[in-house]
DNA sequence: TTTTTGGTTCGGTAACTTCCGAACTAAATA
DNA sequence: TATTTAGTTCGGAAGTTACCGAACCAAAAA
């Protein structure tokens, strides 16, 4: 059940990326990558320990965190006490929904900034006013793009 | 030169947001917000110390970091040794360019994941293949959206 | 009933981040 | 020439994060 050198390399590489994009601890990010790069049969707790070379307690904590965040899921087999972990089937949709939430946040922030500047720094705002507007329009287009994509994915996954 | 309660509230509120979205230390994030919410005349080193209630050394370090990151700039007045700090006129454009870089990164990551899964987990990939494709299309549309917005902003700012 | 399996929980620690104070510097002023 | 101004730089303290080992627990197996 050990990993090919190629997979090990990807786990580290994409792991670093996921630390920032998903705001996860290094170990959690690596586990998440393993789940995404693994077949539907999933991995057991022990396999994850071996692949990550991390301790039992750390694996337990981070697995439970990922479960709670809905990034991974597990299934069991009859007459087998072990849990088999894999990426949540909805993980890309969940990712997009997280993006949607943060875009909405960002739109609010931009609105607060432009509102403040247009009332308290009006002479500054007059000169640069168009740029914040273009920025906001960009954010709104992106929000639409996200909503449409989420809708399309829902359509596929609910059929 | 002290701040209105409204501005103080915004500095903290948007500051927390900027810590994550711009990957800045708390103090750096707050200084950046101050710059964005301030008139074109900018603020001096001492004013920033008073508003943030931070030490000289911390303000110095974080100001230089923000300058290096091109998020803020300063100007001087003849016969006045002080520097006047303000948000970089290009800060929204710079923000979008950072977004563009990370989108391009993300596209690469998604490509690596789908490539790996389609060769090593082909049976898994067959069932979920459409979703990663939609995801990638979403990223490409977003990249276009970003590039167009950056172009529009450049047009305004270079005129 | 004892042991093994498949974990969880807790206390601590090592490493990293963030900030501060004190000493320093270079230019301007007295 | 001495002092003030406008910062910079360095060593370290305090707080936070990420991980580990050891003790623990509940269910199943021996």
Automatic annotation (TrEMBL), chains A, B:
The keyword DNA-binding applies. Pfam families: HTH_5. Keywords: DNA-binding, Transcription, Transcription regulation. Residues 30-70 form the HTH arsR-type domain. InterPro entries: HTH-GbsR_regulator, HTH_ArsR_DNA-bd_dom, WH-like_DNA-bd_sf, WH_DNA-bd_sf. It comes from the Bacteria. This is ArsR family transcriptional regulator. It comes from Autumnicola lenta.
